[in-house]
Amino acid sequence: EVQLVESGGGLVQPGGSLRLSCAASGFTFSSYSMNWVRQAPGKGLEWVSYISSSSSTIYYADSVKGRFTISRDNAKNSLYLQMNSLRDEDTAVYYCARDQAYCGGDCYYGMDVWGQGTTVTVSS
Amino acid sequence: QSALTQPASVSGSPGQSITISCTGTSSDVGGYNYVSWYQQHPGKAPKLMIYEVSNRPSGVPDRFSGSKSGNTASLTISGLQAEDEADYYCSSYTSSSTPYVVFGGGTKLTVL
Q1: Are strands A92-99 and B47-50 parallel, antiparallel or unpaired?
Q2: CA end-to-end span of chain B, whole Å?
Q3: CA of A34 to nearest chain B CA: how many angstroms apart?
Q4: Which residue from A34, A62, A97, B108 has the least number of CB within 10 angstroms?
Q5: pLDDT at A26 over 60
Q6: Reduced to 3 states, what is the DSSP secondary structure of residue B71?
């Protein structure tokens, strides 16, 4: 079964750090680009970051650039999101999602596999 | 990085058809045929329903269809069913200063 499972969420104070993980199974992880997408409570989806299959291409949303770092370990079938200098507005459910087809970041065929999400709460 | 514009809510009766619009700019929706639509039920992860404007992944009923004209993409659901009640999000590739993907604000579909 194709599956993504996020972990690492929790409660953190403003200015703190957190590292999210996403474990992939049931498919050849190293062949797919991956994303982090978040959803604040009661709000819509917001794309956060993209990493190509070989980590050669990385993008960030303006809202997290300079504070978040995406990475992957293809040998461990895992995706990560290091989140530093966290703010109240980073409170959200964070999903990892697989790009349906690989095209290096200059095209988009949708995200066809999603995890169940992990909740990050930034509050004092 | 501005979100794509969707109506906050639409509604329809079982068996009817509804259309959800998604308006962007020439840097996203209008400039590329890379529009996707997602369905999200409460407390669940999003599900890909349409990609490349009008293509359906396997397993998505053909009641769901997509189209695009200029800077506006549309999702049409025909023969509405109770289980279609959900939030729907459009998304598009973008060549803006922060490239890759931008989402719409979401539309709540109510089946009356």
Answers
A1: unpaired
A2: 35
A3: 12
A4: A62
A5: yes
A6: coil
Q: Do B45 and A59 touch (CB under 8 A)?
A: no
The answer to whether the Cβ–Cβ distance between A62 and B97 falls below 8 Å is yes
In this complex, which of B3, B45, B99 lies closest to A114 when CB atoms are compared? B45
* Calpha distance B59→A109 (Å, rounded): 16
In 3D space, the residue among B57, B101, B73, B48 whose CA is nearest the CA of residue A108 turns out to be B101
Among B45, B92, B99, select the one facing A115 at the smallest CB separation: B45
Enumerate the residues of chain A whose CB falls inside 8 A of the CB of residue B90. none
- Among A41, A43, A34, A47, residue whose Cα is nearest residue A6: A34
Across A94-101, average pLDDT = 95
pLDDT given for residue B2 in this prediction: 64
Residue A32: CB atoms within 10 Å: 20
Q: Which of A91, A79, A83, A81 is nearest to A122 (CA)?
A: A91
Q: Distance (Å, rounded) from C-alpha A114 to C-alpha A95? A: 7
Nearest to B36 among A44, A46, A108 (CB): A108
Q: Report whether pLDDT(B98) > 80.
A: no
Exposure string for A1-15, b = 16+ CB within 10 A, e = fewer: eeebebebbeebeee
Q: What is the mean pLDDT of residues B88-93?
A: 97
Residues 6 or more apart whose CB falls under 8 angstroms from that of A13 comprise: A86, A122, A123, A124
